[in-house]
Amino acid sequence: MMTMMMDVLSLQAFALLCALPTTLAANNYHCNGPLVSSLPPTSFQSSTSSSDSQSPYLAKLNRKDGGGGWAPERTDRQRWLQVDLRERVEVTAVATQGRFGSPDWVTSYMLLYSDTGRAWKQFRQEDNVGTFPGNTNSDGIVHHKLSNSIRTRFLRFLPLDWSPGGWIGLRVEVYGCAYKSDVADFNGRSSLLYRFNQKSTSTVKDVISLRFKSQRADGVLVHGEGQRGDYITLELHKGRLALHINLDDAKTRASSGHVSVFLGSLLDDQHWHSVLIERFNKQINFTVDRLTRRVRTGGVDDSLEVDYELSIGGIPLPGKPGTFLRKNFHGCMENLYYNGVNIIDLAKRRKPQIYSVGNVTFTCSEPQHVSATFLSSSSSFLSLPAAGVSDGEELSVTFQFRTWNREGMLLSTSLRRDTERLLLLLVNGQLRLTHHRSALQSSDLVIGQALSDGQWHAVSISVGGLQVSLSVDDEAASTMQLKESAQPGKNVLIGGCPPTLANPGCRNPTVTYQGCIRSIVINNQPINLYLVQQGLLGNYSKLQFDICGIRDRCLPNYCEHDAECSQSWNKFFCDCSGTGYTGATCHNSIFEPSCEAHRLTGSASGFFSIDPDGSGPLKSTVVYCNITDDKVWTVVKHNSTEMVRVQGSSPQKPHVMTFNYSATLDQLRTLVGRSEQCQQEVMYLCRKSRLFNTWDGTPLSWWLDRAGERRTYWGGFLPGVQQCACSLDENCIDMNHFCNCDADRSSWENDTGVLSYKEHLPVSEILVGDTNRTGSEAIYRVGSLHCFGDRFLWNSASFYQESSYLHFPTLQAELSVDISLYFKTTAPSGVLLENLGAKDFIRLELSAPSVVTFAFDVGNGPVVLTVKSHLPLNDKQWHYVRAERNVKEASLQVDQLPLRFLEAPTEGHTHLQLNSQLFIGGTASRQRGFLGCVRSLDINGMTLDLEEKAKMTPGVSLGCPGHCSSQNSLCHNRGKCIEKSSGYVCDCTRSAYGGPNCKKEVSVSFESGSSVTYTFQEPFSVTRNHSRQSSAIYAQSSNSRESVAFSFLTTQTPAMLLTVNTYHQQYMAVILAHNGSLQIWYRLNREKEPDVFTSASANLADGLLHRVQIHREGRDMYVQIDRDTSLKYVLSTDKELITIRSLTLGKVTDSASLPLIGRAGVDEEVLQAGSKGFVGCLSSVQFNHLAPLKAAILNRGSSLVSILGNLVESNCGELADKSSSRSLSDHADTGKKLHPNAGQNDSAVIGGLIAAVVLIVLCAVAVMTRFLYRHRHDRTRQMAPVKEKDHQPRPEHRYRAELDLHSAMRDSRKEYFI
Fold first, then answer.
1. What's the start-to-end Cα distance of the chain, in Å?
2. Handedness of CA 543, 548, 552, 556 (dihedral sign)
3. What's the predicted TM-score (pTM) here?
4. For an engineered disulfide with 589, which of 22, 611, 975, 1104 has Cβ 3.0 to 4.6 Å away?
């Protein structure tokens, strides 16, 4: 680590030294002088002027003559004021005023810049904010320092909003300093060669810096290579910069030292971009504009050996002048430095080290293309005349486009006098040409792939005679045949259609085109877009000329946890598939943080994925959760849990065993830190093998803790020195030693101990060093890591004074933050959390007895989300609150009430800038403090230790009073503890169990044809705050997660136990196959065959009670039957069950309940099991947060619960112990050995006769009992479809059960109604 830090420091120092000439040339430490005040009138231009007295040259700051500033005509559609600074300068700030003595000023504006007065680019400040706040009166000056300086000659001010009581009025000033640079222009067929003084150069440090602007998306900028295989290449590839470096000998170590780094996007925009490459040994810093990637090369070598020369702009082929190995760079470079050498300056001065290939000039060429940006997805269009087209002639159109949108209209033109139309659409990233002959007749032609990738694509369409041809990029043209000769119209519509009245033949598709278009040629005539802009050619709407406004919204990538980012023109989207996270930016973990949390959800023992740091950077890990009544143990295994015998080891050559755990070191550290207690057993047996008994006290054996530190104690929770468990217990066999093994006896001795000092666990390595003597050996085994408890789950504090609070370091929440907590109070209001910045803030509070408010401001104005409960929240019960804010949206959840969320604006500030302390339970002003209890306060996956802070804070105490404020499990199986004045009660409405503590199983007996079906309504879990900033809602996917548990008893096969289906023709089914094995069927993709998993268990239709637990998280599914080991299965997809339609227990009668069944016999087994149904007993059925059997009993007559056949509440769940005992008893009887004895034969015969008589009598009794039971059963069926065992539920029980059915499933973030 120290070596790496020294490498980085040396690299930074060397880079600073090498970049010094560039810095001095390009920057002035006092670069803030006025640049506009001395300019001549000819330096000012504008789109229009309302009068001569308001001409653009009057737009200097503080100027009062004439009309007092510039104002455009009111009919001007493209309003701008342009300043020519006469040469390229460095601009650091701008300032604006309104028009002197008038009601005219600009309240917001955009700033564009250009080197040539063509091909403009919009300046964006931090957070990609593209607008500047303007003035509030005519004479005040508003000054803006640019977040990063720009080097340019031309500036354009584009007014966006202006004085509500007047018009646009503008005076400006620009601040900066002179800027000098050395430039070289490459035409795509040229390059420069920088030749070294010696044959080859070998360096351990390299710094390359340059700026470039490119007219093509591909091309080599810098390349150097050596004979042994070293190389460095910097090249453009599809508008991104790629850096390839190899330091190793390619002949002996192929590709071991190679590294490739990609950075940047849309770098072929004909604007300047800066590059800095810093290398020190294997450490590389690669910076493009203001984004930096840090990587480290592999391999052995640290030096880069380059032979003869470094090529700039291309890679010439030796011996073949003018021939290049790869595409050359086409564009301009400036200030190119290689290890402090100004290469372009050497080339300009024609120094002998520089050799020029092709035509390299030292002034940048003009941009070749003029672009237009189509801004609106609903109303942008460009109408152009088809010059030279008359009846019967051909029409040809070519153009280039670039966009992120997968849909949009590109071109439309009429055929045969508007009775037919030709329509070119972008559909799902492909080109679709449609010939509409009538409203019902059309033909299509589809070409191209992935055309919405942000790259420029060339399209050519030709109409003539009886065919239409279409081509894209370099692909061969495809043709469409026409039935009649084409008669192209005289107008071509690009991007969209004008309003209906203006063009009755054209109809916009779902969306118009949104993106950039350039190089339009109609019938071999290039279209001059400047004439279109001036209104001299064609017509348009919602276009921006001479600029391509495309942005890469995935750079930087705001998707978290390695999620993939995709985008449209205005938004970005995150694909969370396979990450283990969910949400708009994949911020939230789909896994519980601990085994204790799994227990609270009602889970039994088994393998589970846990994410100890929640939304933090660490991934989830699989552990075994041993859930007992008194404790919940988390078990983490490693690679060697068997006993290991050691012989022949010595202190010089010890036996070494390294333990690799199923979790990473960081995951283990977080898991152990979150646990109340951890332990690890080390079994150690020895014979003439000592641990510590040496003359100088040097240990002979030891172990390493998780940090790699040597430890010499072998038991206990205190890190003692050189002692074993027997020393702690004071029972060592030789009291002269602290370990039994140190007695050095020839008999086997035991020094097994349990390590329980958390900060040292787990054991990472063990070394044994005294088994090389005659008769000396040792046997050891290091057990799995066992931890129990979750010390954060119930970490709580009570606030007794309104002026009291807890304070923590500033919240780190620039781009995303999630806050979750539980609170209980009797106060009507109070601030739960607050953190302030200079202007930004974030606050969570109980603002009224039944209202929770989440408010924040990131610079776009305050945003407030509120959730109002129909019941008071100050009822002295625990209430759950979760608030989240990220760059895409903000949300607020309270208990199971509908989620409130608000989309963030697509343009605006994104970083939350805070600088004060984080206040919990109060504010910095000591007003509106919270009175009550707060527990389990979690921020971005880290739980704040409230109890530790409360120990030292007046007015706050650790813990919370009440029965329901501790980790003791008073209510089991998802039961909720409710405080009462004289104790507590358990609310079991979300549990599959009943009884006072939610431990009583609820069971139902099914007869042939019986079933229970629940119909889910459409979810509407999301409620929006109305705001003008909000746009269309993009519904979030629920988690790909199901948790199913039930017990059953049957002798029938096949059998349908449970099936769940969706409105999207998906389903999940749990069945018993013909052989009695358990099968789980998942069809998550209706286009593919289902996933089928069959348990390895024996026949489960054996009349005994079996417990089944199924837990799916993404693609991973864990299945546990009875007490067998939980087995993991992997699905073919991690898709979710989208919009659940119904859940059925028993026979399936509705054909819609099992979609796609019977297709080619694929799901025939499920169909057969569904038709057979289930005969037997089902007990304690839980599906996520739904308890179907219990709800069916308590909700008879509900229109959403369908019951067929006869269901009888049973006690089959309580028979589990009896069934097991009877099974064991039978097994024991059959297992007894019979010893033959001739003297007992007669007794055996007599006993057999007696047994036969008893059997006949029992059969007769059974027949009579069956008859009486059937008679009683028929009468019961006439009374009610469900017979309850004890009594009818009270109205409040029935109401509570209905509330349960109408509650949202928290883990899916959607509300379902049954």
1. 58
2. negative
3. 0.78
4. 611
